[in-house]
Amino acid sequence: MTSAAPLVLGIETSCDETGIGIVQGRRLLSNTIASSMDEHARYGGVVPEVAARAHLEALQPAIEAALSEAGSTLGLDGPLPLSALDAVAVTSGPGLAGALMVGVGAAKALAVSLGTPLYAVNHLVGHIAADILTGEEVEYPTVALLVSGGHTSLLLVRDLTTDVELLGETMDDAAGEAFDKIARILGLPYPGGPQIDKAAADGDPTAIRFPRGLSRASDMQKHRYDFSFSGLKTAVARWVEQREAEGLEVPVADVAASFREAVVDVLVTKALDACAAYGVPRLLLGGGVIANRRLREVALARAAQAGVAVRIPPLSLCTDNGAMIAALAAELISSGRRPSTLEFGADSTLPVTEIQIAEPDAEAAA
Amino acid sequence: MGRGLEPRGADYPGEVILGIDTSLGTTVAVVDADGAVRSEAVSANPLGHAEVIGTLLQSAIADAARGPIGATIAPEPVELTHVAAGMGPGPFTGLRVGIAAARAFALGRGIPVVPVVSHDAVALELLLHDALTGGFEDEADDTFAVVTDARRREFAYTVYRGLDDDGLPVRIAEPALSPRDELDSVLQARGILRRDADRISAAMIGVVAARALAAGRTVGPADALYLRSPDVTMPGPPKRVVA
Ligand SMILES: [Zn+2]
């Protein structure tokens, strides 16, 4: 494929969002997201089997909606015909295995049905590729902080299609999960992120000094860029319980604000530390937790002090979506990469260094 | 959907159906409306559905271009008219791969999906085989259960008796689950013959679909036959960290 602006449909089913996106090179044509979040609310977290079942039901309507949206973006009379696609792209991992498999099965069948090439790509690198669709010139290298209910990763991106390095990630809960768990402790509904944000609005972030995970001097050797939120969760739970045991009211706003501050502080401190250590004056934020207002505020303020330029794609491109998967595949195509062979599966722990999966050249070399 | 129900002109070449089933292994086949099997591609592995579905689709379609098995005509691309999807019962994770693939493939070609109860394919195969070989001759109307592995120490089973006027197996009882060590007593008590299956033929999925289309009937469910609710544990109050 030599097309400079390939028309690609991306399928993303790694967690609880069924994302279908269509791009034409770096131009976003559609970004359709069907979320099963409401179905998980009563369980207080994403239930893998519930998510996988929802993907199966949402896929076809989401593809049809994405084609309609792309058609209208392009000024066509009706939906973009599938036959116009240059390639199909799909998330192969990391993520929930059963959920990923729905997208992989659909993507392979769609590609065989249409006779188009298929690109299997890495979800985390997809989050970085989302920035391409903002229409601004992207500069590398950049440090990227990806924070969601499923992952918390700090990456060094030297080149989107060839060189992404994992600097650190969470050792236990993802940041989004920590928000969900603390929300439960405070009696707030799921998902916890927006709820904590709301509750924290009137709170004092310095009221309670909660621990910052993996931030001691002794952690800097092995876990300088890693995260841990389980200790923080325990500390909050313990603080709340002690209050209750003493018969005192729990100051929900202060607890929420102080907890949020601890999470935000650790995320931003480690991200900016990476920027300084690698001499990279750029920080890209991605993942659903970027919706958190305080995180954006603190990141922007402290990055400005450190002379680091921050990029935050619009929220619809930060949360899990198919457009970022299509965008990454379009970059791979434009840089001359061959399509994936058809034998790949879902890889729930796919390392971030594997940007494209089942690439024929890489396999021959292996 | 429903395209199969439209009236056809004399020039209608007939259905060519792509059958897909991942309720046990992974199987893909192309069959003609009259039941002639053009191609079949199989992976018996009860896992790895997502890994193999693409290559099996590719090879079944390529082989189908060579005409019915045994034919010596030159390869000619096949104009598929329907996709028949085995809807289960089967272990969820694998089952979904086939259904997702069937829907996506159909969408790509702009053709309808015909849902089929996977056990129907086994029942039809057994009944046709019995008719040909004279097996169970004196018990032509015998009630039997198609039994497949449902994992977690359970079987999935569906009870059948003979073929109806449309040539489709008659389901006496819809697919259900039974603990493995209880199934025999359940079936014996009702005089039902047990017939275990360790594979589902995608070709027979296609034939069931062809017969349903010819009769203008919908014989399979629109949604996957999971037979089980998702495993979830309702959260209790938050666990206390201080004893
Ligand atoms: Zn994500």
From TrEMBL, chain A:
Keywords: Acyltransferase, Cytoplasm, Iron, Metal-binding, Transferase, tRNA processing
Domain of life of the organism encoding this protein: Bacteria
An MF annotation (GO) of this entry: tRNA N(6)-L-threonylcarbamoyladenine synthase activity
Top EC group: transferase
Source organism per UniProt: Microbacterium fluvii
InterPro entries listed in its UniProt record: ATPase_NBD, Gcp-like_dom, KAE1/TsaD, Peptidase_M22_CS, TsaD
Catalytic activity entry: L-threonylcarbamoyladenylate + adenosine(37) in tRNA = N(6)-L-threonylcarbamoyladenosine(37) in tRNA + AMP + H(+)
Residue span(s) of domain Gcp-like: 28-326
Protein name: tRNA N6-adenosine threonylcarbamoyltransferase
Cofactor comment: Binds 1 Fe(2+) ion per subunit.
Summary of the function given for this chain in its UniProt record: Required for the formation of a threonylcarbamoyl group on adenosine at position 37 (t(6)A37) in tRNAs that read codons beginning with adenine. Is involved in the transfer of the threonylcarbamoyl moiety of threonylcarbamoyl-AMP (TC-AMP) to the N6 group of A37, together with TsaE and TsaB. TsaD likely plays a direct catalytic role in this reaction.
Names of required cofactors: Fe(2+)
EC number per UniProt: 2.3.1.234
PANTHER family to which the protein is assigned, alphabetical: TRNA N6-ADENOSINE THREONYLCARBAMOYLTRANSFERASE, TRNA N6-ADENOSINE THREONYLCARBAMOYLTRANSFERASE, MITOCHONDRIAL
Binding site for substrate: 146-150, 180, 193, 197, 292
Subcellular localization: Cytoplasm
Family per record: Belongs to the KAE1 / TsaD family.
Chain positions recorded as Fe cation binding sites: 123, 127, 320
